[in-house]
Amino acid sequence: MSQALPPIVLDHPLVRHKLTRLRDRNTSTAGFRRLTRELSLLLAYEATRGLSLVPRHIEAPSGPMEGEELDGKKLCFVSILRAGNGLLDGMLDLVPSARVGHIGLRRDHETLEVSEYYFNMPSDVPGRTCIVLDPMLATGHSAAAALTRVKEAGAKSPVFACLLAVPEGIAHMRERHPDVQIVTCSIDSHLDEHGYIVPGLGDAGDRLFGTR
Ligand code: URA
What we know:
Number of domains: 1
Largest sheet: 8 strands, mixed
Shape: globular
Strand content: 25-35%
GO cellular component, one term: cytoplasm
Cofactor: Mg(2+)
Oligomer: single chain
Number of strands: 12
Radius of gyration: 18 Å
GO biological process, one term: uracil salvage
Low-confidence stretches: none
InterPro entries: PRTase-like (IPR029057), PRTase_dom (IPR000836), Upp_B (IPR034332), UPRT (IPR005765), UPRTase/APRTase (IPR050054)
Catalytic activity: UMP + diphosphate = 5-phospho-alpha-D-ribose 1-diphosphate + uracil
Bound molecules: uracil
Number of helices: 6
């Protein structure tokens, strides 16, 4: 059996600085959105590291050269509603031509089963690299369900990108999707009894959209 891929953690002073401001409960909604956009651009940089290139001949100002360009179909970002939408702007700043899909999932509080209420993807997913987005990898149930759907749709080498992850969520993903690369800005300590990441940043959706 193949080994699960270890998560990639963005280890960079700018990421640590921005993450500290993001976690701060006194950061405004506007500040939280701006920081999320900046961090998601940096996440996109790392999450796209595995993209393949093909040679491209160009005429540079000082003469012809063999350059490179991305191979295959355009990338697809897949937002897990609603908080995943907060990561889209930064991702699209870096990859403006990417396609975007959305998945809506809800959790039954009694059975803890995840069910889908929305699924909208580009029609030609087979062969496209998909990067699934959710700011928080907490229990990992939504992320795993989203990855299953994206794989069923035919996505190539899917990646999961988040701002924060905890060992519980990483373990769940490694069990269900050992082939999926997780890219995160930090691995936090644990989940509290309400399912919040500790130290975390609170409810990512509420902080992004100014609800509650
Ligand atoms: N979702 C959030 O928004 N925050 C957490 O801490 C855990 C899951």
